[in-house]
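DATA SHEET
Item: assembly model
Revision: 1
Owner: S.N.
Input lines:
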Amino acid sequence: MTGLWPAAGTGTDVGLLAAQAALAAEHATVYGYGVVGAWAGPEVRPQVRGLMEAHRGQRDELRQAVRELGGAPVAASAGYSLPFPVGDVASARDLAAELEVRLAGAYADLVRASDGAARLAAARALRRSALRSAWWRGSGQALPGLAEHSINGARR
Amino acid sequence: MPCELSRRTLLAGGGVLLAAALTGCSATGPRQAAERAERSAGAQRLREETEADSRLLLARYDATLATHPDLADRLLPLRGTVAEHLAAVVAAAGATTASARPGGEGAAAGDAGAPADATAVPAEPEAAVSELSRSEAEVSERRLVALADAPPELARLLASLAAAGATQCYLLDGALPEDEPGLLPEAPTTEEAT
């Protein structure tokens, strides 16, 4: 998926870069849930819609956070390459889990690069992504967001 | 290997700060301060508490499994996750404070010394699972609170552990964090997917 680690405008500090990266990851996630919704089957359509709305909300919060750090919020890409082909219910649900896994990584890095209320917000967002990924997959990752501990190559 | 790390690397690679420290790059400014913070007494104490909590959780899983062997299929994968958490915490402590931790290796080895109260397992299997879920939730919440005062790298680990603990609760008995009661939609009907 492209655009997860964009060049970050004029900012120079790590906190702003990490917030921009998390924002870019939320953009990608919103896009990805569009694909998920097209393939995941009618019985989960309301759930996908709810999750898409939730991620739009998180995206908007990150935009605000970036502005407060003095940055210009990074825009969504025109298109994204999917990490694997999606063309049926199973692959769509795998994609949804994968979106949350990748997003968790961005939030974990934002925890490291922030403090105070922003850090707690990032930690809670990481927790939400871990839970959503488990909801889709029926199983969890031992250390969500920490790619260096990923043993199954979840962050391809 | 050049010491200069791009910001991309800094953001993308977990443990990069630490890696820079271990490869002997001369660090200056904020990075150096961050490394000092990871080695501070407060961080060390926090790591020890985190390790103790993981050991206690592991002991609770073992006590529950001993009382309810029929729960093995359900509990063993989750126990494995707790064991991975303990290993990660011990590894982080070892990497950060190798010289100041003579007992580090012994600590990494052990399942020994289950605390007495870990053996108080409810007789009813579902109650025992719920008790485990409550223990996981308590530890997860404690870690979420503790990361506020942690240095950056440890905070990242604690956030991941807190997220993992909340996931363990969800997988154990469907419980969600108290402050996120409506987080997950109704479970998808997975029959069609498989």
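QC remark: Residues 1-27, 99-114 of chain B have pLDDT under 50 and may be disordered.
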